[in-house]
Design brief:
The structure is a homodimer of 384-residue chains. The first copy, chain A, is α/β, with parallel strands linked by helices and 384 residues long. Helix content of chain A is 45%, strand content 18%. In chain A, the strands form four sheets. An eight-stranded parallel beta sheet of chain A has the order 4-14-13-12-11-10-6-5. Chain A has a three-stranded antiparallel beta sheet with strand order 1-2-3. In chain A, strands 7-8-9 form a three-stranded antiparallel beta sheet. Chains A and B meet through helix 3, helix 13 and helix 14 of A and helix 3, helix 13 and helix 14 of B.
Amino acid sequence: MFKVISKDKNTKARTGKIQTAHGEVNTPCFMPCATYGVVRTLSNEELKNIGIEIILSNTYHLYLRPGLGIIKTLGSLHNFMNWDRPILTDSGGFQVFSLSSLRKISEEGVEFQSHIDGSRHFFSPEDVIEIQQQLGSDIMMPLDECVEYPSERDRVKTSLELTLRWAERSKAVHSRQLTVDSQEEKVRTCEPSTVNRQLFFGIAQGSTYLDLRKEAVNRLLEMNFAGYAIGGLSVGEPEELMFEILGFTLDLLPDDKPRYVMGVGSPIDILNAISLGADMFDCVMPTRNGRNGCAFTSEGKLTIRNTQYAEDKRPVDLNCNCFTCKNYSRAYIRHLFSLDEMLGLRLLSLHNLYFYNNIIRNAKKAIEKGRFEEFKREFEAKIQ
Amino acid sequence: MFKVISKDKNTKARTGKIQTAHGEVNTPCFMPCATYGVVRTLSNEELKNIGIEIILSNTYHLYLRPGLGIIKTLGSLHNFMNWDRPILTDSGGFQVFSLSSLRKISEEGVEFQSHIDGSRHFFSPEDVIEIQQQLGSDIMMPLDECVEYPSERDRVKTSLELTLRWAERSKAVHSRQLTVDSQEEKVRTCEPSTVNRQLFFGIAQGSTYLDLRKEAVNRLLEMNFAGYAIGGLSVGEPEELMFEILGFTLDLLPDDKPRYVMGVGSPIDILNAISLGADMFDCVMPTRNGRNGCAFTSEGKLTIRNTQYAEDKRPVDLNCNCFTCKNYSRAYIRHLFSLDEMLGLRLLSLHNLYFYNNIIRNAKKAIEKGRFEEFKREFEAKIQ
């Protein structure tokens, strides 16, 4: 279900292809956040026109709103949101810990209060898999505990052990489910690589402790996941430390499985992670920054509300072919922002996602030509 | 610059074509409100896909924000907002009276305070023409005074006289400008019918007094405008009275000029006005209702937030081919509204504009076949 297509000469960057129930995903890939089943401000047609191949939704959010009943009535998350390309669902672990109040963690799972209405809920690792099975996402993630940065080694160790026990329990449900499904559909294999199956990734935690990261990876490898995610990064640690842990952990992961760096990051962060061998990314930055009036451009960031753009006839990015840059001037988009008109938020969200996707597209080409390092250097030089 | 194409058999409904500097407008037509140079939530591409041929912008709003300087730097309103089809600009008369505080009316014009920042401004009738010339709209409207409903006859009479003197002054500036332009461009004719010229419409006021409406029309006809608008309707008067005045006034207008009913209205209001001989309409209803979660459908209005739609797989309107109805379910759009997600507001705005435009498209066909009355009756029966 994953094939490495090409490798760069001088870095660990690689291109690949993931086969999912809803089609192929070319890696490296950037997954826009459709937390509640919508990439904010954008239609699915716009996402496809940009070239987005996979989006990320969130189990915690969708479970609370609109709730599973509604999504099941509509068939699946794909049906509900009318998106026919792959979807990765995050487990909700991170959200339970960052958004909800009064969470109580036990061996069994996590009890939490909804950040919307304060209602009480309980997620076991098994629940989270079952919810994602009902959502029908293409790639599922297990419930994990996320520790804040910085955390004492003992705290991280204890948390990691729990996360790994939860991973085992999650894997057991998933394997059982696969077996049942396979029998029902008279398919002999119950490998997770089977198309028409939900892929299940493991998440390596371990905070800033290299030995704990190593332990996390080793234990996950024993469980044999379809892909491996690196969690708990970009949570406040210094950049240098983040890349040290990232590089160290990526090196431990097998070549023949996709590697997903959760919640990272800026365009340059992503290029750096690609050079260390990462394949998949998600981040709210392009859409959130877009809504805040901040555009990523080939010459660095641009704050559209600045007075200097009031009469600027030029597109947001002089070197961009997105819908926004082909049709609208900085002056007009600034006018929309000064009106708090949502078309403005949408035009910059669209541009920023196009910009992200375009960097990755160009990165892929560079990797195929064995000149990724050069490409990254050129990009960094232009941005700064 | 205006041609009647066909007339209905049993009503006064007609189809026609207005030639403007930015192309033809087929009538009857509905003009979405792009008050500040944007039809809220929608891109120009979406408007074109719906089939919108002309939009309405507002002199008062654009003068205050972004201001003329910015629009002139970008070239024109068309350039600024990247819309290459016709634009009608309202004069701002209605807005000065409805939005701004501390307005002082004199023979010379109107002094007012911005509803945005309280700054003081003055509009003479001449100013308003010059502003619209700088905006470069295709159809301009003169500054007028709008009286509230109900108003005493004396008050209306005095106001109407002022509005008519203002109309004369406006016409003088416009004719002078036309002559100058014609000489500059070595064009012999200075008829307002010349393509590449801004068309200038008169506005008939007179509140609910038929004799004053008649006087208004007669005086405007002497001034010879390219088209005639009926203002001061749909401001709180009973519906029956509105249609009485509308029918009476439309009957006074010449056949060979377009007739624009300002600020009207609901789909049924528009069909009724068409049957009385009206050609052009504008109303915030489709977009404002869309943003408020209210959809117009072939079976009446639908409030998307209602619980009954929570699991409804069907499109907003079962008989609609718009982007929204082809792609999204009621359940999903309701979910977007419960998130306050702007994609929801946009999807319903788009649907409602498509619905309005579609009614008018079907009305045109019915008129051409001489069966407008039947069409209107069928439409009303379905809606109720």
